[in-house]
Structure formats: C-alpha cells, structure tokens
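Priority: low. Protein: DUF3329 domain-containing protein. Input follows.
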Amino acid sequence: MKFFDLQHPWFRPVWRRLLVTAVAVVWTGVELAGGAFFWATLFGALSVYCIHQFFIAFDPPEDEAAGE
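Result:
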C-alpha cells in the first residue's frame, strides 16, 4: 500500500479526479492571494502532481471481481 495511492479504484470516476484536482488548484490561488508563498508552492506542487497522476498517467487497476 502506497502512502499517496492516486491509482486507487476510488479515483476511477472522472468527477472525483476533477474535484480533488480543482480543490488543490483553488487552494493554491487562496494561498497566493493571502501572500503565503510557501503554502502556495506546496499546494501548487500537489496540483501538478494530481494533474499528472489523474490525467496523464492514470491507469486504474482492473476490477478484482471481474477476474472471478
């Protein structure tokens, strides 16, 4: 089990991936607007990571029940 398992089947629906990514992007803007550049950098990096993992490299595992 990975600590940040973004390939988990829970993220299979596109709306969940969009929601998580949108929250990270919006929070980056909130931190930038507040002048907290450290937190903006942290959430910006999280946003980029989510975009990559959810929309570029996303390969969800097959259903475990389908193999039976």
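The helical segments are 14-33, 37-56. The radius of gyration is 15 Å.
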